[in-house]
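Protocol step 4 of 6: structure prediction from sequence.
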Amino acid sequence: MELTRNTASGFRAIARNRLSGKWSLALGTTLLASLLGADVLMNGGSNVFSLMVNVPRNSQFYPEYFYYNDAMMARFMMAFLAMGSLFSLIGLVHFIVGPFVSFGLIQFNLDLFDRKDPELTVIFSKVEYLGKALWLRLRGAIFILLWSLLLVIPGIIKMFSYSMSGYIMVENPELTAKEAMTISMDMMRGNKWRLFCLSFSFIGWILLCGLTMGIGFLWLNPYMNAAYTAFYNEISGEYQRYGRAE
C-alpha cells in the first residue's frame, strides 16, 4: 500500500485542527515558555552565546563624540553596562532554564496533538531532566557551530538533522543526548527538505507579524509549534513502522 505523506499545507491543517478551542491556552503557554528561552526544535542555545559575546564587543561602534564629554560618557557607560548585564542575565536564564522548559513545551504540544487536556504547568514538568536537556541543547549547538565553520549550508543541514532530538528524548527520557541526536539524524533522512518546506511555508506569516511589531508572533508561534509536532508524529510513526527504532 502506497504511503500517504502530508505536505506543508497538510501539517498546517492538522495544527489548526488541534489548536481549535485551545488557542488561548496554547498562546499563553507558548508565550511564557518562549520568554524563558524554550524552543521545540531545540535550536535556541547558540543565540545565548551570540548575545553574551556580541553586546560588549559592539561598544566599539558607538560615535566618538561620547569621548569628548566625560559626564555624558559616564552616563552612557553606566547605561550600557546595565543593559549588558540585563541581557547577560536573560541569556543565562535562557541557557539554564530554556532547555528543560523546551522539553515541557514539547510535551504540551504532544499532549495537544493526542487530544489530551494539556495544562500550562506542563512546561515545568521536565525539571528533573534539566541536566540532560541542557547537554542536548549545548551538544547540538556545538555540532551545528562546527559544521557551520565549514560553510553555512552544512550547518543548516545539521540543524535540520538534529531538530527532532528534543521530541525523541521527551518520549524516551532514558536516551542520552548522543543517542537522541543519532536517532534524529536517522529519522530525518529524506525528511530534511520536507521540514525546510514546512518552515518556509510560514514566511508570509512571519513577514506580516513583523508589520505588527511582533505582536502577531503570539499567535504564529503556537501555530508553528503545533505544525512541527504534526511533522514529528508523522515521521516518527514511519520510523517505528519500518522497524528502524530501537
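Step 5 (inspection) to follow. The radius of gyration is 20 Å.
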